[in-house]
């Protein structure tokens, strides 16, 4: 009986050490460096590049015109990767809300309240950006200066 308890204790210790090692390695996840500068979304399938959009300022309202943003399933979204030389102190992740239509009928979307993010450098000119809270379904953007990368989470 004592020998059985010893074997069980050793097995439990090995399982605990294996689980701890898996968690430790997951925290130091390395991301492959993208080929081009820009913003990416890390999904279960890999890095997917977002197309940039122009930020407009009209009468004090800052907005983008929707330009057929990329769609991702919420279950596949993991985090953002930003690669390039950017002013990281002005980086924000924002939900987008309908503002009005342009004269040509294109929908315009204004930036909502900033979402809290955690930015970690990952090598030279590459950053991993993770929201501190949970993101839900909706229209979002990563915004730096005059450029926004907009996308939809479905």
Write the layout of secondary structure elements.
Blueprint (H helix, E strand, L loop, with lengths): L1 H26 L10 E6 L2 E4 L2 E3 L1 E3 L2 E5 L4 E3 L4 E7 L8 E10 L5 E5 L5 E5 L4 E6 L6 E7 L2 E7 L1
Parallel strand pairs: 6-13
Antiparallel strand pairs: 1-2, 1-7, 3-13, 4-5, 5-9, 7-11, 8-9, 8-12, 10-11, 12-13
Plain-language structure description:
The chain is α+β, with helices and mostly antiparallel strands and 154 residues long. It is built from 1 helix and 13 strands. The strands form 2 sheets. Strands 3, 4, 5, 6, 8, 9, 12 and 13 form an 8-stranded mixed β-sheet that branches. The chain has a 5-stranded antiparallel β-sheet with strand order 2-1-7-11-10, with no helix packed on it. A hairpin with a 5-residue loop joins strand 8 (92-101) and strand 9. The radius of gyration is 21 Å and the shape is globular. The N and C termini lie far apart (55 Å).
Which tags fit this structure?
154 residues, alpha+beta, 8-stranded mixed β-sheet, 5-stranded antiparallel β-sheet, globular
Helix content: 10-25%
Per DSSP, the total helix count is 1
Number of strands: 13
Residue fraction in strands = over 45%
Q: Sketch the topology as an H/E string, one letter per element.
A: HEEEEEEEEEEEEE
* Mean model confidence by pLDDT: 86
TL;DR of this structure?
The chain is an alpha+beta fold and 154 residues long.
